[in-house]
Amino acid sequence: MKKMNFRILGLAVILAAGVSFTSCEKDESQTEPTVGLKFNTVTSSVSLKSTQARELSFTSGFITLREVQFQIETDNDSVEVDFNIELNTQIDFATGETDPDISYAEIPAGTYNEMEVEIELQDEGDSPAMVLNGTYVDADGVSHDVRFEFNSGETFEVEKEGTITFATNASALAQVTFDPTAWFADVENEQLSNATKDNEGVIVISETQNANIFDVVADGLDLATEIEIEM
């Protein structure tokens, strides 16, 4: 298992986070600060490297998490909040929705000096942690079904150091973006045009099928999963 850092796109000065996620809608009378957890999935197409630009897109599938961890603490460690969700949570790639729902979290209002969010993919069982279904358009304009399978207990994390104030009745949104257009950015058109298909005519990209493409995508996944926290 290896850890990969999220790229922080933005961080509000006043944030809200939590010690427990809930599946119900946010209570408007709530006085403790809250944070919403949202997963964004990019379904737009990517132009492959080629003298004749061809496209690849993913529009459905799932990503299974085994753990979501959120931790904040003060500079002298006098106050520490450490919350873990240790259950299989499946993200619908088409919608970004999770099952079970992990919409909101709450945390005591206060000022903290360090925050960490960590997400681990499920790697136990026969099913891959990530299965994405899409379409590849070749140089002749012909469409081919593609399936990307990723089965590893990868851990993605982001850390933020500095003064972070969780104000009473404040709210924020933590958004995690899974973007296959970035993962496949270095895949060449010729690689997909020469890829093998399974018995159902699908180009499967996994550790055991079309592994040369998989290696390129796995490297891109390491670098291009993002998290943003905003008010």
Compact description:
The protein has 231 residues and is mainly beta. The chain contains three helices and 18 strands.
Overview of the molecule:
The protein is mainly beta and 231 residues long. The chain has one domain (3-230). Helices cover 10% and strands 49% of the residues. The chain is built from three helices and 18 strands. The protein has helices spanning 180-183, 189-193, 211-224, and strands at 3-5, 7-11, 14-15, 20-22, 34-41, 46-47, 55-73, 80-85, 89-92, 98-99, 104-106, 110-121, 130-137, 143-150, 155-166, 171-178, 203-205, 226-230. Strands 1, 3, 6, 7, 8, 9, 10, 12, 13, 14, 15 and 17 form a twelve-stranded mixed sheet that branches. Strands 2-18-16-5-11-4 form a six-stranded mixed sheet, with no helix packed on it. Strand 9 and strand 10 (98-99) form a beta hairpin. It is elongated, with a radius of gyration of 20 Å. The two termini are 33 Å apart. Residues 1-24 have low confidence and may be disordered.
Question: What is the strand and helix layout of this fold?
Answer:
Layout: E1 3-5, E2 7-11, E3 14-15, E4 20-22, E5 34-41, E6 46-47, E7 55-73, E8 80-85, E9 89-92, E10 98-99, E11 104-106, E12 110-121, E13 130-137, E14 143-150, E15 155-166, E16 171-178, H1 180-183, H2 189-193, E17 203-205, H3 211-224, E18 226-230
Parallel strand pairs: 1-15, 2-18, 3-15, 5-16, 14-17
Antiparallel strand pairs: 4-11, 5-11, 6-7, 7-8, 7-9, 7-12, 7-13, 9-10, 12-15, 13-14, 16-18
